[in-house]
Amino acid sequence: MFNLLKIAARNLRRYKRRSLLTVSLIAFGVVFVLVFVAVTASIKDFMIAQITDSYLGALQIHRRGYVASIESLPLNLNLAPDAVSQIEKTLAGNKDVASYSERIKFGALFSNFTETTNIRINGVYPEKECAALPQMLSRISEGEQCVRGLDKGKILVPKLLAQGFGTKVGDTVVVVATNKDGSVNGKTFLVSGILESATGPGGRDGYINFDDAREILRISGKEVSEIVVRVKSLPHVEGVAQSIRAGLGLGEKKQKGGGIEVHTWSQLSPFANIANMIDLMTYFIKLMLIAIVLISILNVMIMAVYERVREIGTIAAIGTLPRKILSLFLVEGFCLGVTGAVVGVVFGLGIILALYVSKITFNFGQATGLILAPTIAPMEVVTASLLVIIVSVLASLQPAYKASRMEPIDALRHV
Amino acid sequence: MSLIAARSLSKTYLTDSVEVKALRDLSFEIEAGAFLAFVGPSGSGKTTLLNLIGCLDKPTSGGLAVAGADVLKLDRRQAAEFRGANIGFIFQSFNLLAVLTAFENVEYPLVMVQELRPAERRDRVLKALQAVGMLEQKNQLPEQLSGGQKQRVAIARALVTRPKLVLADEPTANLDHDTAYRILRLMKQMRDSFGITFIFSTHDTRIIGEAETIYSLEDGRLLQREEKGKANVQSTENRSAKLTAL
User: pTM, whole model, 2 decimals?
Assistant: First the structure.
């Protein structure tokens, strides 16, 4: 093998300019793929983290049918106390669950005593909500940025609504809601903070204490609309969801928790489609890399075979077996691929590091001045490198096969 | 037993629907240790005959046995293996691998064909280069060598595998007279030293006289066989002992 590598390297050095051009082209492709993957993956991960850590959670648990009619926030589809106990028991026993938070969600009227509008209210346990959604507090643009902002009798008002009504921190407002029996109840709240929307300017979600929500809705037992779950590893959320489903007995013939649904963030957020689009673009970029490598290696190897016909005839005449002639050319393609991949990885990682260090800023939704910190998983680097090397060898296959099938007598006659 | 036995050997090429009879009904035998030349004008069939003997091509009809093997029965892979084990080639244009040094060119068949261990390879290559007087130039690339030096390296490459037979197609065509003469003398010296059969083709009248047996060809026919007497030809038994010295 060493001798094959030596001969291949010498042959590549023989046509320096051509080999250099091919290696440069492959390296450029690798650099482009690595930088693209690093930047898009970092932006995607950031966006997903923004959504899951500040509002949605990694996954949510509802009563069956609740998500389908979530626009009306139906109180009659809340999880019953016994179901909540069962879910809490399952979550507590799952080692992949970091924390969880119960919510009561309902539609209500919001009034500052002169104007009234509708609002979506989330009744939460402040500590549990902040543990499940670590970026929740950072969304509070004015007022108390701590869990005390959700003490009993306090409300976090969505920014858009606060701007429209001229509501400020310290104002008193009224929230009026109809419970599931049809009776109306209201409660006054002290505005403790103004809340930025997690997903854009259209957010109309206000937050109050869980006990206040129960009081308004006159709920006696522990009845909740949804349970938001934070997992220890977001990329493995699908597996965690499966294990929770299994823990709840979902999917079994005799379902213990038959009326329960577990949804991951990607099933709940339209951003999942954007994330999928980003993944799709990454695949296309990788396809482009394959095309670049395939065409450049194929071209250079076809030329190599064409220019060395007599040489092929000579080595065949002196007894080199066809499979060894095949190997000679495959190793040349392999060497080009390896060199291109190594150069590309070195430059690619260098550019990613430079981007990381230079701290380029960008905006996402309401958030501005976010720092781009591209990183790349070692597996992505290995995958891109292996892809290049495998495609290089495959691209060399046809010219190498042609060389190995040459009749020595014809090859020796070649001028 | 003869090293080479041809019986009613014919070769016909089909070029643009036109049949070209390159060899017509040739029968001959060549003994081991011969220093033999096929002579004749261009198109007389010399190269075709060498190609058949070298298992690079197959006859259209007739029989041909080389070193006990019926070349007609060898498939592509077997023919390559047979050449690697039994036949050395010397080409008109030297055909050294441009990217390899003289040493590496001679080493090539031992690496890629006979797959010998590095220590044995080195030993054999150095001896072969010494035998052809190219030891000092062993690290030079072909482009740094003169025509005569290239052909010496090619001879070393042909000998290093310890073949039974060396075929040389117009080995002196690209060399000046003095160099051509020295190459022929070297080939004969190698035959004398190692008992390897040398068969070469030429139409150069200045060097024909170096051959001990001359087959004259014309239009694919064997016209005459001329014996000039053998000088110190090795027996087959002696040959293996001599080859070990390579």
Answer: 0.74
Give residues with Cβ within 8 angstroms of B55, minimum separation 6.
Answer: B66, B71, B74, B79, B82, B83, B87
Q: Which domains does chain B have, with CATH numbers?
A: 4-244 (3.40.50.300)
Q: Are residues A27 and A99 in the same domain?
A: no
Q: Could you tell me if A237 and A202 lie in one domain?
A: yes
Please check whether residue A60 lies inside any domain of the structure: no
Q: What is the ipTM metric for this complex?
A: 0.86
Report which residue type is found at A228. Answer: V
Tell me the sheet residues that pair with A207.
Answer: A122, A156
Parallel, antiparallel, or unpaired: how do β-strands A97-111 and A226-231 relate?
antiparallel
Q: Is residue A345 part of a domain?
A: yes
Q: Are A278 and A390 found together in one domain?
A: yes
Q: Shortest Cα distance from A12 to chain B (angstroms)?
A: 9
Residue A303 counted as domain residue: yes
* A257-267 residue pLDDT tens: 458 899 999 88
Contacts of residue B111 in chain A, CB cutoff 8 Å?
3
Residues A294 and A399 both lie in one domain: yes
CA distance B168 to B185: 14
Instruction: Give the number of beta-carbon pairs within 8 Å between A and B.
Output: 71
The verdict on A227 and A359 lying in the same domain is no
**Contact yes or no for A320 and B113 at CB 8 A:** yes
Chain B neighbors of A413, CB-CB under 8 A: none
Nearest by CB to B76, which of A11, A315, A322? Answer: A322
Residues of chain B with Cβ-Cβ distance to A412 below 8 Å are 56, 91, 95
Residues 317-346 of A with CB under 8 A from B: 317-322, 324
What is the span of the domain harbouring residue A354? 2-50+273-413
Q: Is A1 on the interface with B (CB under 8 A)?
A: no
| pLDDT tens, position by position, A62-84 | 998 888 888 888 888 889 898 99
Residues 6+ positions from A379 with CB-CB distance below 8 Å: none
